[in-house]
């Protein structure tokens, strides 16, 4: 039961932000300092659950997913009400927008999990909750393009070695949107929904609230594409003699056994298994210790990827040398140094917020 409770990390963070909305820096500090430090302190999670129908169909694992969706929409209205109806300092506005954008990205994590399922309710929620980020077309590109062409030049969200996150994001956004128009009827429907969503926000919160909404939209999309960036960075499938790419395997995705972020992201870090079995529920995903393993969880990886030179210095040697214990331990030492520097900086901001 305690392990199940860890899947409620995101709902707890959402409720905490709503409750303590006057000081978002404390929530930010908890996410970007406490969680990375816990991931470093706790043992890695390589446990693979027994593949039973009972576990696969356990409805209790759906509850935190549905909660995240409901609370994500509640958080949107709470933040917009707070920022448009109160005199909020620029410092607290930055903090609140940062926490809102970060937590909004979990709408994609949950949407991703649900849109791969077979039930009409899950597919509906997984697709249409993304209208909050004006990104319902994600389900087209992700299912029909990414899963088919992952790890090849034909996939816009499989980052190449040496490609920076900042050049990757705009390119990935544009190509996915363009490719999604191959399913014209769906895209027409999603475009109308996006327009209606924008009109809805503008009519309620005027131009000020609408600008905040658009900032959140970009932030949540940027987090999504940053996840795409780190999941397959530099890993490529071989082109065979028959002009087909080799079959997707454990060695074409970066995985991470870091315990807290595994629960924070609903086992998204067991990414190789997800690509082999896309409809597999998150609670029974497996991890192979011989697969490419990141020296840090996805959350810290996204933080490091903001600094391309640091990211490439850590990751480029691992692309072909991920099985080397020496290389891996060296990359872990670099990650720890980054975490301590970032924790010091974030702690200073949090302390400043207490006296602002």
From TrEMBL:
Example GO molecular function: monooxygenase activity
Membrane spanning stretches: 12-35, 63-83, 187-205
Localization (cell): Cell inner membrane
One annotated Gene Ontology cellular component of this protein: plasma membrane
Membrane topology (UniProt): Multi-pass membrane protein
Entry keywords, A to Z: Cell inner membrane, Cell membrane, Iron, Membrane, Metal-binding, Monooxygenase, Oxidoreductase, Transmembrane, Transmembrane helix
Biological process annotations from GO: lipid metabolic process
Keyword rRNA-binding: no
Superkingdom assignment: Eukaryota
InterPro entries (UniProt xref): AlkB/XylM (IPR033885), FA_desaturase_dom (IPR005804)
Domain Fatty acid desaturase residues, every copy: 107-285
Pfam families tied to this protein: FA_desaturase
Predominant localisation class: membrane
Similarity section: Belongs to the fatty acid desaturase type 1 family. AlkB subfamily.
Protein name: Fatty acid desaturase domain-containing protein
């Amino acid at each position: 039961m305690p392990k199940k409770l860890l899947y409620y990390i995101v709902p707890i963070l959402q409720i905490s932000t709503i409750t303590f909305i006057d000081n978002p820096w404390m929530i930010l500090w908890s996410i970007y300092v406490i969680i990375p430090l816990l991931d470093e302190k706790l043992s890695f999670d390589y446990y693979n659950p027994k593949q039973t129908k009972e576990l696969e169909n356990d409805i209790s694992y759906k509850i935190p997913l549905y909660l995240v969706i409901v609370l994500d929409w509640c958080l949107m209205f709470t933040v917009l009400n707070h920022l448009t109806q109160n005199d909020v300092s620029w410092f607290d506005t930055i903090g609140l927008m940062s926490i809102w954008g970060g937590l909004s990205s979990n709408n994609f994590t949950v949407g991703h999990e649900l849109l791969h399922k077979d039930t009409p309710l899950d597919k509906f929620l997984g697709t249409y909750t993304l209208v909050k980020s004006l990104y319902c077309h994600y389900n087209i590109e992700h299912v029909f393009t990414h899963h088919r062409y992952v790890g090849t030049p034909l996939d816009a969200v499989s980052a190449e070695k040496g490609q920076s996150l900042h050049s990757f994001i705009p390119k990935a956004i544009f190509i996915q949107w363009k490719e999604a128009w191959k399913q014209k009827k769906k895209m027409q429907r999603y475009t109308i929904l996006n327009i209606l969503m924008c009109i809805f926000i503008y009519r309620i919160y005027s131009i000020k609230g609408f600008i905040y909404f658009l900032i959140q939209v970009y932030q949540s999309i940027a987090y999504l594409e940053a996840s795409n960036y780190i999941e397959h960075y530099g890993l490529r499938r071989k082109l065979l003699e028959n002009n087909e790419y080799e079959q997707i395997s454990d060695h074409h995705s970066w995985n991470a056994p870091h315990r807290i972020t595994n629960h924070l992201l609903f086992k998204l870090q067991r990414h190789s298994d997800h690509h082999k079995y896309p409809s597999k529920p998150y609670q029974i995903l497996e991890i192979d210790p011989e697969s490419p393993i990141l020296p840090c969880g996805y959350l810290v990886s996204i933080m490091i990827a903001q600094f391309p030179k640091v990211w490439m210095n850590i990751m480029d040697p691992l692309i072909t040398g991920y099985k080397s214990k020496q290389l891996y331990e060296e990359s872990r030492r670099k990650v720890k140094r980054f975490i301590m520097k970032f924790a010091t900086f974030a702690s200073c901001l949090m302390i400043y917020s207490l006296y602002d």
